[in-house]
Amino acid sequence: MALPTSPEERDQGAVQAQEQLEAAAPAPLEPTPAQADEASMAAVEEQVALTPVEGEAQAPAEQTPNMWRLPHDYSKVLGVEHKPPMQRQEDVGYLWAALANDPNAHPTIRMIAESLMGGSPRGPRR
Predict the structure, then answer these.
(1) 91 CB-near residues (< 8 Å, 6+ apart)
(2) Boundaries of domain holding 100
(3) Which tens digit of pLDDT belongs to each residue from 73-99?
């Protein structure tokens, strides 16, 4: 912004043009630093005014229940239909059979699976 330092500048029109430009400009989107400081100080003063004095009794804060908490009783989570004991034993047998025949399984796991399946366990290879 040009500052009027002499009467000639105002006569030339540079100062008037700058003033017209500033008047036509839209309001700034962000506050000036001084305005921001004043707003923050007002917010701090309001917060201080709202804080209770140490001797005053405070109302208990409302607590909303956490809806994402895990349930304590899992019996209803997976349903009430359970497999019969014979089918559960059969499924465990299939698991051990799969582990005994899996070439990617750890040798110790394969050895345990083979011994549980009734086969002769192979010892560690040398």
Answers:
(1) 83
(2) 85-116
(3) 666 666 666 788 898 889 889 999 999
Residue 75 lies in a domain: no
Structure tokens given for 51: 């804080």
Angle, CA 11 vertex, CA 10 and CA 16 arms, to 5°: 45
> How many domains does the chain divide into?
1
CA-nearest of 84, 91, 90, 93 to 117 is 93
Q: Is residue 91 part of a domain?
A: yes
Q: What's the confidence (pLDDT) of residue 58?
A: 65
The residues, ordered by sequence, that sit 6+ positions from 102 with a Cβ below 8 Å of its Cβ are: 110
Tell me how far apart the alpha carbons of residues 61 and 78 are, in angstroms, rounded to a whole number: 35
Half-sphere exposure of 47 (CA within 13 A, CB side): 6
Q: Exposed, middle or buried by CB within 10 Å (0-12, 13-18, 19+), for 105?
A: middle
Q: Would the CA dihedral through 65, 71, 76, 79 be positive or negative?
A: positive
Looking at residue 14, its pLDDT comes to: 72
For residues 112 and 52, give the distance between their C-alpha atoms in angstroms, rounded to a whole number.
68
